[in-house]
Amino acid sequence: MxxxxxxxxxISKGAVVAEVLSTDEDLGAGVDVxxxxxxxxxxxxxxxxFDAPGGTQVPDEVGEAIARALREASANLGAGYAxxxxxxxxxxxxxxxxxxxxxxxxxxxxxxPNMTSLxxxxxxxxxxxxxxxxxxxxxxxxxxxGVAPWLEIAHDRDLVVRHxxxxxxxxxxxxxxxxxxxxxxxxxxxxxxxNAVGTVTDARRVCRLAHDAGALAWVDAVHYAAHEPIDxxxxxxxxxxCSPYKFxxxxxxxxxxxxxxxxxxxxxxxxxxxxxxxxxxxxxxxQSYELLAGFNATIDYLDSVGGFAAIAPYxxxxxxxxxxxxxxxxxxxxxxxxxxxxxxxxxxxxxxxxDDVAARxxxxxxxxxxxxxxxxxxxxxxxxxxxxxxxxxFIHYNSADEVDRLLEALNDLALSR
Length: 417
Description:
- By secondary structure, the protein is an alpha/beta fold.
- It is built from 14 helices and 15 strands.
- Strand 5, helix 6 (148-157) and strand 6 form a beta-alpha-beta unit.
- The longest helix is centred in the N-terminal third of the chain and has 21 residues, at 82-102.
C-alpha cells in the first residue's frame, strides 16, 4: 500500500516541487485493488505493467477456464455426446455474455480470431452491394485496422475512401465530417477511442450523422471497450468490433452487427455452415471454443470487480494522478487533461529518446512501449514529434503505488537529461 511518498509535480530550472498524493484506498473506492491484483499471477513479481493499450494481463481464472475447456470440451458442435454438448453451451453462453457486454441481442454477436480479421471479413461482406464511386469515410484518429480494410476494398472495387480531419487537440472535426458526407457515402467508420492518445469521439453524434446521410455507422471500439461501458443501441451503431485481450480476456475479436442490417448481407462462408443464429452466418470455420470459455470467465471477472461503474472512475483517477505528478519536461500529446479521453497517454521526455526511456523504465521493472505511429497513420503526422514516443496506459489492476513509481522514474529521467 502507498505510504505517503512524495512525488515530483513539476520541474522548472532545477527547482523540484513535491506533492503528497492520495492513497490507493482513496483512489479505489469502487475497486478493491489488492484483491483484484491477487487474482493475477503475472502481477505478483512486482513488475508494473503500463502497456494495457497493447494488451492487458489476464486473471488466473480466465486461463483456468481455457485449460478446463481444452480438457473437458475438446469437440465440435452437433454431436450428441458430452464434450460436444459442452462446446455448444460454451458458445451459447458466450453469445449471451457478449450481447450483455455490447448492448445487443445474442443473435447479433459475431466472433472471430481478432478485430482486424473480423473487420476485413465484414467490410468485404458489406461492400458486396457497393458500386464504383461509392464513398467510405474514416477518421484521422483511427488505428489502421479500421482504415486498411476499406482502403483495400476500395482498391478492388473502385470505391473512394476519405479521411475526416481532426482539431489540434486530436478531437474529431465534426464540421469536416458533415462537409464530407454526401449521397455516395456508404459507411462512416471511426474509432470510439484512440489507441494512441486516448481521445474519445462522440460516437452517438457520428452514428446519427451517418444515418442522416443514409450511411452505415461502423465503430472500432477496441480501445474504448477496455475503459468504458458499451451500448450499441444507445449510440446507434450498425457494426461495432472490439478485442477481449484489451480488457483482461483472451485473443479474440467480437462484433455486434445490427440485425436489420446484417440480415441483408450475403456472408462469405462454407455452404453447409449454419445460418442460424444470424451472427453465426458470418463466422468462418470452427471457432476457438476454449477461448470463448475464457471470454465467458472474463465477463464474469469484470462483473465481479464491480463492472465499469467501478472501473471507469478508478482508472480516471489514476490518469489524473499521472497528469498531476508529471514533470514539465514530460510532454503529453493530445488532450491536456482527463476530459474527453481514456487513461492512455503518449509522452516524450525532453532530451531523452523514446527508446531509451522505455529501456530505462524496463530496467526499473516498469513496462511501456516506444513506437513511431502506433498504427494511427492519420494521427501520427499531427502530433508534432519526430521519431518515436512512449505510450503509457492505465488499467484497473494498476495501483496508485505503481503510478508513483512511474512518475518517480520519469521525473528522474527528466532531471538527468
